[in-house]
Amino acid sequence: MSxxxxxxxxxxxxxxxxxxxxxxxxxxxxxxxxxxxxxRRVGPLANGGAISGEYLSAASxxxxxxxxxxxGVDALWYPxxxxxxxxxxxxxxxxxxxxxxxxxxxDFAELRLRSRGLRTLCSVFVLVIGWLYLLPQLQGAGLxxxxxxxxxxxxxxxxxxxxxxxxxxxxxxxxxxxxxxxxYWLKLTALALPAIVAxxxxxxSGHHFDRPAxxxxxxxxxxxxxxGVELATQTD
Length: 236
Fold this sequence. Notes:
0% strand, single chain
């Protein structure tokens, strides 16, 4: 394993250990309110960091970045769309759920509409949506580990799954919130540091975003230029 792969694997392990340790800070979940809503004792700063950390996830780092690379700036409608969807979720689902005192959407459906069948249907939708959300997250973890270390992708997926399950099972929503908030500040730092370095380099050192100068050759040089050509034909 190369030095770069060892450094990347070490960084991944440090983040995993830090996430596990922070998750252990949360008290053990013993009641339903501990597990699902952290007994409603999580402050707005931690909640805001957790929500932001959820959005700075594999979908943002890998999915949206890849879509923009492939399709250009038009792909930015994807993050705009799911951000708008989240605001709708807060307004039309989270707020009524909070006022009702229910913990889950199936609980709220049965409480509001007095229908066990609707509760079952909502439960199925929640499980399907959760599964569709979980699969790309695990795939992103496996892909990241494979790219930076060369290890099989299942290693990253398994490690991510074990850490998340342990955090949720023992600490409930309080531990999950703290871990998500920590990861938000970590990922925000990972985004901000290169931007700050780039600003200092390009503007603090007298560099400008000018077009590069043409290449210069001190001796006779043969240059082979290969450019793809697209040929469009039209028939009557």
